[in-house]
Every structure is written in C-alpha cells, then in structure tokens.
Amino acid sequence: MLVLAGCVSSRPLDISSLGGTQPLVKIGLAAPFEGLDRPLGYEALAGVKLALAERNAMGGVGGYNVELVALNDFNEPNEARFQAGEFAADPAVLGVVTGWTEETARASLPAYQQVGLAVAVPWSVHPELADPESGVILVAADEQRAALVLAEAVAAAHPSRLAVVADGPSATFYVDSMDDLQLDVPVISPPGVLDGQVAQEWITRLVSDRKQTPDVLILATDGVLAGDVLITLAVQDWEGTTFAGVETGSVHLVDIAGNAAAGLAYVSPAPAGHDLSQSEHNSTQVGDGLGPRGVLAYDTTNVLLDAIDLAIQKDGYPSRQGIITTLPEVRRHGLTGDIAFDVTGRRIDAPVWLYKIVDSYPVERSYPGRVLLPQPITGGE
User: Fold this and answer.
1) Closest residue by Cα to residue 143 from 184, 80, 101
2) What's the pLDDT score for residue 360?
C-alpha cells in the first residue's frame, strides 16, 4: 500500500482488479452529516449524488467510473481540517467539494493545499480564499459580491437609520458596499455566546432607544442567531425591515423564528431547483427537488468532474496535480448559469438571487421562501 500511495503523483491507483470492469477514481465531499447542520449536509449530498449518477450513466470521465467519498465535518473548523487528511490518505481521491461556511473553509483549505488536493468551494466565502495555483476555486458568488447585491436591495428600501449585525472579515464587505451607495452604516457585533437569554438582552438594548433604533437591519449571522434576533424583535414590536446575508439563509432560520421570519429578505448564491427558469432545465427537469445548496453542489461536482476529464485528455490519465492544473480552466453551463473563472480563481459574473420568507401558501414560512427576482441579479443591475 505504501508503494502504491507513493505512485499516485504520477498515475492514479487502478483498482479495476478489485472486481469492477472499469477503472475507478474518487471525489470527496466534506459536509455536516450529524449535529445541528445535518439538514444542510444532506441537501448538499443530494446534489453531488445526482451529478455523479448522471456522469457515470454516460460512461464516467475519460473511461473512469467515479465514486463518492462523503465525510462528516459537523460544520466545525477542526473537524473540517481533520477530514482533509482523511481524503489525502486515499490515493484514489482526486479532488474535494467542501467549504460550506467561511469558518470551515478558512480552517480546512490550507490543509488541502498542503496535501495537494484540488478543492471546488460550492458556497459563498471570502474571495481571498481562492487560490487557482493550488487548485482552490470558488464556484459560487463570493461574500463580497453577495454583499454588494444585498446593499443595492437595501438602498432601494430608502433607510433613514441602518445597522448591520455582523462580525469578522465579512463585516467589511457590507460597510464598503454601503459606502459605495453613500449609505452610512454602523456595524454591531453579535453576542459572542449564542445563549438565548444573552441574545435577548443584546437585542433589547439594540432597539430600546426609539430615537436611535434602526428602521432597516441587515443580519449577517448564521440562521440560528438570526432566528433568535427576529423573535426578539417581534416581541419588542419593532416595525422596521430586515435583510440578511448568505449565511443567514438556512432551514434553521425558519425553524427557530417561525412566524417572525415572515418578511425577511436575504441573498442566496443559488436558487432552489423549483425556482430555476425553464431554460436552465434539461428535458428531465434536473434540479427540481434540490435546495439552494443542492443546486450549487450539483454544479460544483460537475466542475470537478470536468477538471478530471480535462486532465485525462491532457495527460492520458488522471492525477491530483493534473486536476489542480485543469480545475481553473473549466468552462461549462450549469444550473446556475455560465461557469468560468478569472485569474484569481473566482467565478466570473457569479449570479446572486434575492429571496423573501413569506407567510402565504404554498411556501408558508419555509426555506428558501419566494424568489423576488426570477432571474439572477448582479451588482449594478
């Protein structure tokens, strides 16, 4: 096994002799399959499995059948970093789909770069995390682009007093985007401990001074904290308008907030499958049953598979280094539109959708809610 592992840099491990008739390669998926974020992980898994099933039904990539290795990272940075080593230990794994939050991506991507595994990041993260030279590309709109689109939606609401609830590097994107639109916005850090009582006291202070209470609030937090915020705002009879960033949009938001979630608008780097325009579908209505993470997982998996195919065409065989080289070169039309990458590894003209949680049939307070714009919107439009 040590000898075989040492050969992986030049040629893949041919395991057709283990009982199959077609040589085999593998791709990885790291996502939360246990714990609080379990629904998000299985939403992503559905998209990856659909893309793999379609590709293998067409003969695989370059004559190779493709198998999935799915590992649970709990959406925890340390666990996400650990799983990079697990993937690296299997020489047949040629690339990985992972990076569902800013925290897990920032923790794990250096580990993948160290072991020489290409990563296609399927969700919105900080643009600085892209590194095409080491095979890290961003398939979704990055946080900066999503913040700009959200800022334009907020500006259309004509706020007189605006506040952003955010923390970390992403807060800068909202401030910069608002500055570009000549909107003055204070950034309020969320409570460090996600305890219900602490959150309630913090929100009460936020809206206690009626003269300083914002009439528009942007939540750039996870769905759990955003749900607590919305409940407490409703108790305080706050009458303003609430917007939210990419991280907020999740099943946790509506599970926790319930009725209080109705009316919140948020940006998403992908639509739900049933919101895709007819022109984005093939004859079998691919993507209809997928949530937003599933739609992007489907597109991201196909990008990774195309990179493997390109590597085989160039080198005659797939290898980890070959995929690192070809991944930034992939061009395809996916469920979320045209996919291509600039020299920094970011998706060119990455689309962003605007959703609203509504309180009416047939999407009654459900995630993702109702898409406000049926076509993707981009900065400046």
Assistant:
1) 101
2) 61
Q: How many helices (DSSP H) and strands (DSSP E) are in the chain? A: 11, 14
Tell me how far apart the alpha carbons of residues 229 and 231 are, in angstroms, rounded to a whole number: 6
Domain with residue 233: its CATH number is 3.40.50.2300
Q: Scanning the structure block, which residue is given the tokens 């602490």? A: 198
Rounded CA-CA distance 301/27 in Å is 9
Question: Is 292:368 a contact under the CB 8 Å cutoff?
Answer: yes
Are the CB atoms for 73 and 40 separated by under 8 Å?
no
33 and 134 together in one domain: yes
Given a cut of 50, the residues of the chain with pLDDT beneath it are 1-19, 278-284, 375-381
In this structure, the answer to whether residues 103 and 243 fall within a common structural domain is no
Residue 283's pLDDT is 41
**Tens digit of pLDDT for each residue in 276-295?**
854 444 444 677 789 999 99
Please report the pLDDT score of residue 210 as a whole number.
55
Domain of residue 92 covers: 2-141+277-339
* Residue 58 phi, psi (nearest 5): -95, 10
The one-character DSSP state at 116 is T
Contact assessment for residue 126 and residue 143, using Cβ atoms and an 8 Å cutoff? yes
Q: Which amino acid is at 77?
A: P
Sequence-ordered list of residues with C-beta below 8 angstroms from that of 54, at least 6 positions apart, any chain: 286
Query: Is the residue at 317 inside a domain?
Result: yes
Tell me, what's the pLDDT at 245? 92
Under a CB-based contact definition with an 8 Å cutoff, are residues 164 and 242 in contact?
no
227 with 87, same domain: the answer is no
Q: What's the confidence (pLDDT) of residue 213?
A: 78
Whether residue 264 sits in one domain with residue 174: yes
122 burial level (CB within 10 Å; 0-12, 13-18, 19+): buried
Same domain, 7 and 56: yes
Structure confidence by residue, pLDDT tens digits, 233-250: 888 888 889 999 999 999
β partners of residue 71:
30
pLDDT at 275: 87
Q: Is residue 377 part of a domain?
A: no
Report pLDDT for 93. 97
227 C-beta neighbours (distance < 10 Å), count: 25
The CA angle 324-340-143, to the nearest 5 degrees, is: 90
